[in-house]
Amino acid sequence: MTRVALRGILGRKLRTLLTAVAIVLGVALVAGTLILTDSISRAFDTIFTDSRQGSSVVISGKSAFNLSDGSGAAAPSFSESLLQKVREQPDVAAAEGSVTGEAQLIGDNGKAIVYGGAPNLGFSIANGASQFNPLQLVEGAWPATGEVVIDGSTADKEGFAVGDTVGVQARGPVQKLHISGIVKFGSVSTIGGATLAGFDLPTAQNIFQKPGELDEIAAAKPGVSDAQLARDLSSVLPANTQVRTADQQAQKDAKDTNSFISFLRTFLLAFGGIALFVGAFVIANSLSITIAQRTRELATLRTVGASRRQVLRSIIIEALVVGVLASVAGLLLGLGLAKALFWLFNAIGFTLPNNGLVFEPRTAVVALLVGVIVTLGASLRPAIRATRVPPIAAVREGATLPESRFARFRTPGALLLTAIGFAAVIYGLFGSGLGTGAVLLFMGVGALLVFSGVALFASKLVPGLATLLGWPTARLGGAAGKLAQGNAKRNPQRTASTAAALMIGLALVTLVAVLGQGIRSSFTGAVDKIFVSDYAITAQNNFSPIPTDAAKAAESAPGVEAVASVRAGEALVFGSASSVTAVTPNAGEAIALDWMDGSQAVYGQLGTNGAFVDNDFAKKHNLTIGSPIKITVPNGTVVPLVVKGIFNPPPGGSPFGQVTFSSATFDQNFDQPENLFSFVKMKGGVTDANTQALEKSLVDFPNAKAQTRNEFKDNQVSFLNKILNVLYVLLALSVIVSLFGIINTLVLTVFERTREIGTLRAVGMTRSQVRRMIRYESIITALIGAALGIVLGVVLAGLLTARVDFINFAVPVSQIVVFAIAAVFVGILAAIIPARRAAKLNVLQALQYE
Of 288, 587, 653, 804, whose CB has the highest number of CB atoms within 10 Å? Predict the structure, then answer.
């Protein structure tokens, strides 16, 4: 039977190839994801390891709690005098101090050089020849006072060379520095979109406004273990510092990065799973049709003595061979896909470090196992069905497979499966006490059950949908259109199974589109309610903090009536790390809130201990006007506050954290305060003159930009649009899989209807009409999948938006129309090969075909 199975595959090359494509694409995304994330992880590990090379221990400022990356808060600096004390310890052979921060290079166009969301790293280099320096000098010399070295990637992109003058902006206005050298970081080939700016220690302390302070001290002594050196130094360190071994510090540095990589891996693998899930539908449907067409062949095998078990084994062997070959092809394609994913992230401004692709043995094992298991699982039902072919079918023309004894339970089972799926999704969204993992599990399993249930039940909907959606083809397409409509309704189960693959892809695309539209409409609605000023000042990349001096410079612009700024940081509130914000006293002139308790006057009444919170936070902690709140800031100081206002944020959210207090209190307790936003009210509102005046006032702060309300909304939403585009590209793989599923089904039905097509040609149907008939049938099938998918996607999006308070439910009608039109194009593309094949059938041979 093994030989029979292999010959069967070789005898149906086209059908086998089209069936395998579904698994190839799914496995490629799984393999590509693992290769991509392993490559990123290796590159980051190299960066963090190189950065601590030569160090035995690292001394740093100690925060009162673990700070989140990008929270706006940083561990406190410490006195530079500690460096000499460390050097005097007997177990220390070498030690050097450094300061670090955000330092943006300024291009020749006067704008900050920013590559997507990548960091702009600035740091001191006390001694270029030091064992603690991870940089390699490519050209020029190490920096002296008033000089800077920059990375080679930025120098190449921007046309900088040794001897040029470049602007650098950190804590204060832009400073012009001489480029003394070009450097590269460690052994990695690229550090992604990050820019590097290195200074000598005095220059760095001046730029970062840390006079007489350090952020770190690296120390080492050969012959003494890192752990022992850390223990020896811990006894002489002040309370506001801590010491870690170099390995511990590298792990700490990599913690946030590892979390990101883990999220990215899970995120991308989910799309690989979706593609494989869709592929399972394609394989099951293709094998079901193939087995139905091979009824006489299988019956003949039974007649000559093959047992049911042998027939089952032959089908399983076919599926196994297809699964292995497709998985191997997908694994190889995954290498190219990993490169494509690097390019995709780079295209949206999310450039990742890369030191070459990493192909782990685990990648091959996982990808091959997943592909083979999915293929075998999808083939199980058709294989079992093949064993039911009775031997008598070998001599009976037009014999069909007998229905399973469970067929009568298909409809109630499908409805039950769908109901259980929706129940799981609803419980995951609204159930109490569930962690993030449990929520995602219930939602994921529920969605799979919903898709499976709807796919099984869809056969009951096909006749009505084919009549409705096929009406234009039947009305305008003549005889070919009517025949296509009838063909779509002839075998509802087959049409439903074919459409189900496209349904899943379009359901997810619609879900993303509705959620994206909801986020956009919620955010823009919130801006319209809160933003009562004329301009907003943000960073060039729209989300990084900007120096507080930028807002002070804007105040000097002619016509400015008020500049209200929002600072952001992190603090311990009621025992957990929470986002906190601060506002200037005149914020009421630029930022309007819906106050539950209090009024716009609260901004100016905060003083040294006043605070306001949002309504949900107040309910959670039973807060009212006058309630005390104690927050612990990163340096360990406990700041007592009193609630003076409670507001109700709009669905799109607000610029404020869980607790907001005065900017004066913030500046007193947080190191290196920066603004997240500044809102400007000007006499005469938005005019060309006011815009020019504001831009002129910010000339010394190239990283800051002034925007009108509409520009602010567009810029803030732009990153969301990029994320949505990535999601659409990833989901397009499942649509491509479904495209091949439709092609495969149509090719198989052309084989099945060979005599029928020959008869139609014999009674006068032209080749052109045959092509149109196949094309119309493909379009009707695609539209059925689109209709089911769009409705299902809107329903699932409605459940999600009902759970998330800050997202409104909004249907992007224009996008849904585009999806429907795209489904028509999918149908047209899918019909090209089958239609040409049908039109080329020889009439006489077709009439004799069995």
Answer: 587
